[in-house]
């Protein structure tokens, strides 16, 4: 979705039941918002391509206008950094959707350098739940991104 009209067409085709649940979303590398039913995989929603952001989003109406109620970066397929928020906000702006100024649920993902498992960091406890190794302070899930402790 690149415009308000795109979103209006999409939301008009949804059932009440669908709209009562969050949706899976990705922001493709062109900055467009892609939406799929909640139980969809993010990687499938993105057709296997790289993304600028991913997570879950829910919508509600406010004074007859669709708005984003909640938005997260919760995607175990992409494990996006919280720094993906500007790309998400830009895509929501393009679709003319009012939204919070931040992720309403921000997940902190890290890849363990020892066992290579993906972790969700909880309560600022940067320790791998699989092998007890310390986790990097910087996001490092994408193997093509810069090193976790430098450029």
Shape: elongated
Described by strand count, sense and barrel closure, the largest sheet is: 4 strands, antiparallel
Class per helix and strand makeup: alpha+beta
Mean model confidence by pLDDT: 93
The ordered H/E elements are HHEEHEEHEE
N- and C-termini, Cα separation: 33 Å
Strand percentage: 25-35%
How helical, in percent, are the residues? 10-25%
Q: How many beta-strand elements?
A: 6
| Sequence stretches where pLDDT stays below 50 over 5 or more residues | 146-151
> Which strand order do you get reading across the main beta sheet?
2-1-3-4
Number of H- or I-type helical stretches: 4
Radius of gyration: 16 Å
What does this structure look like?
This protein has 4 helices and 6 strands. The model is unreliable at 146-151 (pLDDT under 50). The protein is elongated, with a radius of gyration of 16 Å. 18% of the residues lie in helices and 25% in strands. The strands form 2 sheets. Strands 2-1-3-4 form a 4-stranded antiparallel sheet. The chain has a two-stranded antiparallel ribbon with strand order 5-6. It has helices spanning 4-12, 16-19, 42-45, 85-94; strands at 23-28, 33-37, 51-62, 65-71, 108-111, 118-121.
Please name the defining characteristics of this protein.
alpha+beta; 151 residues; two-stranded antiparallel sheet
